[in-house]
Specification:
Chain lengths: ~325, ~325, ~300
């Protein structure tokens, strides 16, 4: 158990270092950072001084080490565009994104998995066919278009829900939240639905495919041949085996929710990290880009680690190192 | 035992026909076969792969995979039809009255559930006992199938058992509710040769002790010779010969059975060459008219291509071959 | 003498074509195609989109290269927004399709190539390629594309940015999609590599490349085609998304996403059609391609029969 987790942790650290390296290269070689800092009118002497004080003359590994040390402490320098520390800019927006992703993930799981199980079990049923067709439309609908359509219907035409911003949030010990008041919650409904819809359909189709795969296996046939009830076979056996791969994918999906939040946040002008990142790209605000990259990588790594541990808890084959990996 | 005339057979299959509708017409995988199994008897069903052996077993227990279906015929178990009794009734028979063992022990057990849990779950499906009693019974069963340290191993997962041990677990699962018939579909094919004999011996011993009848599906004549009381030989979806195992082995009447027997390696002093039957079994899409074996048959004559022979008494066995119909044979010029 | 053989070869060529056509129309795949009306409709829809998009200069009376025609604010009144708007949309579809196709092509070449190398060479090379694939797989396509785009924007001089925007887009989307191809091809390569005929081919001195091309590629074409079709839908959507976010094609070469972006600014003033029509075109196109991919996957997967 311990070696397994330690190994995974080491891999995670390696991934983080790799991403940090990319971010650092971005930082130091894309455009001259001095230009961005000292302004156009600076003399060569001033530039040289800035270069020295910033340590840009040091050898590459030293610079990288310094960057990494700062990054670990959350220091990514100043945003070119906003002229405030990157950490502050991100810190202000992180809660908005995390809440959005959380609500979307919960919705996708609570609806997507049961629908997938249902369509997997009732493979040829009418309802399954309808659900599958709808899901294909869901996959073909780009996230931003879903957002626009929802705004058009629920904000412009019906006027039920707000179409942009976080609305009335409640301050919970420094964490601005949309989840504790109805007024705040109203603002998060449309963005969260927009964000979750694609993942929901994906999850449903994945669970269905996996379920069909499992239902074809010998051990399910043998379970039926032993006279176990449909209920026991479907939910006691098949579902459990289905969930193993589903957990991995769900982890990846939460990661992609964070990425897709960029789109949703743009459509709804949701003041989160994604919107910040997009603006950073448009203005070539490199410190923000680098910081976002590192933060997202960190979140992904943490999610992956949780997934691995869950995996370990569910699949007994992993628990005994080296003893027969027969399928 | 062995007396088939007075007692009602445990299982009676009459004119069973299994079909697969496809876009190029209906494929007949099992074509009008009839046989019976008596209480406590071991019936070997032998034939090449694709002969319809496994499908016959699946049809009996109601587990044909769609689009395969029983097109006609009857399956009678313990005096009552079971081929048309609806899902819930056949489910109650499965495991309880009729159990099934599949070919590959490595894939027959759910990898995520402990062996003990799979056993108690099966026991409690059919017998009303509490969890503790079920567990005791599970350990008892594991002991019975020869798994050492059953007390400890009952809580282990399938991947912690070797192939042979897993097949023992599978047998324990099949025996869990004390069924009266076990359909064993190639139970040893996936195992090492050295372990095959152990498993067969075990199966044979346990069934004898419990008085369980066995339908042993295999393509291995050697296994049949050791284990079965009677044997049915299948070819292209039909039974071509059926009879007591010693008679079929020593005095095979059907040319196909004869060929099969010659393909068993026997260590003897007068080393005969191991013979093979020329050609291959026809695919379901193009089964020849008349006797399906006629293109490969060394004793084929004209009439074999025209009409399909039925099983008739020939010596101690029953064979479906025109050779034993004197009028047909006489009418033929060859 | 020569003419005769030529005629003969011609004839055998025609015969062979006829044979393979006949086999195709008789095949299970064509059968399942005919049996699924949804798939037929999806196929026809895709074809119509192609014809309309690439025939746009011929089909519309407007000069599609003239930016004035593309000014959708001109398309304010009904007749104009149908005509001027539709020509813009046709052009938009063309840009979307071109970017989609090129990026899928890019991922196929990259993915299949790396997959073959990874599977055939094995060892450390395989390990490195697959690690990169793993890491990349955990980063969603949109994010990878956005990052690459930001990167390109930072290193390219401002003047050429618009000119090469489409290629940047193609590379960005293509790079974000190659992993699936590589994984599939790698798996098949590893299976195929150990077969006896490949060993034999190696012994008689055929080059690894020839072996791969003749033995492995034909075996993986089915799955690659399925993934490519589904990737095409994904690429079209990703392109639209990036363009919608304002990091895609320049406004002078609007794609469907750009058009939706324009329209979105007027959503609240009631000009819903500016968003809805390109949006509809995008969804129908993506849906048709997805349906094709879905059907293809089922038709080529013997397990699901």
């Amino acid at each position: 158990m311990l070696t397994y987790i330690v190994r995974r942790l080491l891999q995670s650290v390696l991934v983080l270092i790799a991403v940090g390296f990319i971010a650092f290269s971005l930082f130091s070689y894309v455009g001259d950072p001095i230009n961005n800092m000292v302004g156009v009118e600076a003399t060569d002497a001033e530039r040289e001084w800035a270069r020295k004080t910033l340590g840009l003359d040091d050898p590459f590994p030293v610079q990288f080490a310094r960057f990494a040390a700062k990054a670990v402490q959350g220091d990514f320098g100043q945003s070119y565009r906003l002229s405030i520390p990157v950490a502050t800019a991100i810190g202000e927006r992180l809660p908005a994104t995390l809440e959005l992703v959380f609500v979307a993930a919960v919705m996708a799981l609570l609806i997507g998995v049961p629908l997938g199980v249902y369509t997997g079990l009732h493979r040829d049923g009418a309802i399954s066919r309808i659900l599958l067709t709808i899901s294909l439309i869901g996959i073909s609908l780009p996230t931003f278009l879903i957002g626009i359509l929802l705004i058009m219907v629920f904000s412009v035409w019906l006027g039920w829900l707000p179409s942009f911003g976080r609305g009335a949030t409640v301050d919970l010990w420094g964490w601005e939240s949309n989840l504790v008041s109805w007024e705040g919650f109203k603002s998060i409904i449309l963005p969260a639905v927009t964000l979750c819809l694609f993942q929901l359909t994906l999850l449903m189709r994945l669970v269905r495919a996996e379920m069909l795969e499992v239902l074809r296996t010998d051990y399910i046939k043998f379970a039926r041949a032993r006279g176990l009830t449909n209920r026991a076979v479907n939910f006691g056996h098949a579902l459990k085996n289905t969930l193993v791969p589903v957990i991995t994918i769900t982890g990846l999906q939460i990661g992609s929710l964070i990425a897709f939040a960029i789109i949703t946040e743009t459509v709804f002008q949701w003041p989160g990290m994604g919107l910040l990142f997009l603006q950073a790209i448009q203005f070539v605000d490199i410190p923000v880009m680098a910081a976002y990259l590192c933060l997202v990588a960190f979140i992904f790594v943490v999610i992956n680690l949780i997934v691995d541990i869950l995996y370990y808890a569910i699949d007994p084959r992993l628990r005994l190192d080296g003893s027969g990996h027969a399928h | 035992m062995g007396d088939t005339t007075n007692a009602q057979p445990l299982l009676q299959v009459e004119n069973l026909r299994v079909e697969f509708p496809t876009r190029r017409g209906t494929l007949v995988a099992v074509d009008d076969i009839s046989f019976h199994i008596d209480e406590g008897e071991v019936l070997g069903v032998v034939g090449e792969s694709g002969a319809g052996k496994s499908l016959t077993g699946a049809a009996i227990i109601g587990l044909l995979e769609p689009p395969g279906r029983v097109a006609s015929g009857q399956i009678i178990f313990d005096g009552a039809r079971i081929d048309n009794i609806g899902y819930e009734k056949i489910r109650r028979l499965r495991g309880n009255q009729i159990a099934m063992i599949f070919q590959d022990p490595l894939t027959s057990l759910n990898p995520l559930i402990t062996v003990g849990r799979q056993l108690t779950e099966t026991i409690r499906t059919h017998v009303s006992v509490d969890e503790r009693a079920a567990r005791e019974r599970a350990i008892e069963l594991l002991n019975e199938v020869g798994i050492p340290a059953a007390e400890r191993r009952v809580d282990q997962y399938p991947h912690q058992f070797s192939g042979g041990m897993r097949q023992r677990v599978v047998i324990a699962l099949a025996l869990a509710a004390n069924p009266r018939l076990i359909i064993a579909d190639e139970p040893t094919t996936a195992l090492d040769v050295s372990i095959q004999a152990q498993i067969i011996t075990l199966l044979k011993r346990l069934c004898k002790e419990h008085g369980t009848a066995v339908m042993l599906v295999t393509h291995d004549m050697g296994v049949i010779a050791e284990t079965a009381d009677r044997v049915a030989v299948m070819y292209a979806g039909r039974i071509v010969e059926v009879g007591p195992v010693q008679d079929v082995i020593r005095h095979a009447q059907h040319p196909y059975t004869h060929g099969l027997m010659n393909s068993i390696p026997v260590v003897r002093h007068d080393v005969e060459q191991l013979k093979q039957i020329d050609g291959a079994m026809p695919r379901l899409t193009d089964i020849p008219s008349g006797c399906a074996f006629n293109p490969r048959c060394p004793k084929v004559f004209e009439y074999c291509r025209d009409a399909r022979p039925e099983l008739v008494d020939v010596g101690a066995t029953r064979a479906a071959c025109w050779l034993y119909d004197d009028t047909r044979r006489a009418g033929d010029t060859t | 003498m020569t003419t005769l053989t030529e005629e003969q070869t011609n004839r055998t060529w025609v015969w062979r074509l006829r044979d393979s056509l006949q086999r195709f129309f008789d095949s299970d795949i064509f059968y399942s195609f005919r049996r699924s009306p949804v798939t037929v409709v999806a196929f026809l829809t895709t074809v119509i989109f192609f014809v309309a998009a690439f025939g746009a200069p011929i089909l519309t009376p407007y000069n599609t290269n003239d930016v004035a025609t593309l000014d959708l604010m001109n398309a304010f009144f009904p007749p104009a927004w149908i005509e001027g708007g539709s020509s813009a949309r046709l052009l938009g579809t063309q840009v979307s399709l071109v970017v989609g196709f090129l990026s899928v092509l890019f991922s196929v070449v990259l993915g299949v190539g790396l997959g073959l190398i990874s599977g055939y060479v094995g060892g450390r090379t395989d390990h490195i390629i697959m690690r990169i694939a793993d890491v990349q797989l955990s980063f969603p396509a949109v994010l990878v594309a956005l990052l690459l785009f930001g990167f390109a924007k930072a290193i390219l001089p401002r003047g050429v940015q618009d000119a090469v925007a489409i290629y940047v887009l193609v590379v960005a989307i293509g790079l974000s999609n190659w992993v699936q191809f590589a994984r599939t091809v790698r798996g098949s390569t590893m299976v195929e590599k150990n077969k006896e005929y490949v060993q034999a081919a190696r012994v008689i001195g055929r080059s690894p490349i020839a072996i791969m091309v003749h033995h492995v590629l034909p075996n993986v074409m089915g799955p690659v085609l399925v993934i490519a079709t589904i990737s095409l839908a994904l690429a079209i959507i990703t392109e639209a998304t990036l363009s919608f976010l304002g990091v895609g094609v320049p406004p002078t070469q609007p794609s469907l996403g750009t058009l939706i972006r324009f329209g979105n600014n007027f959503l609240f003033s009631g000009e819903w059609w500016m968003t809805i029509f390109p949006g509809l075109a995008l969804v129908i196109l993506a849906l048709a391609v997805n349906l094709l991919g879905d059907w293809m996957r089922d038709a080529l997967n013997p397990k699901l029969r």
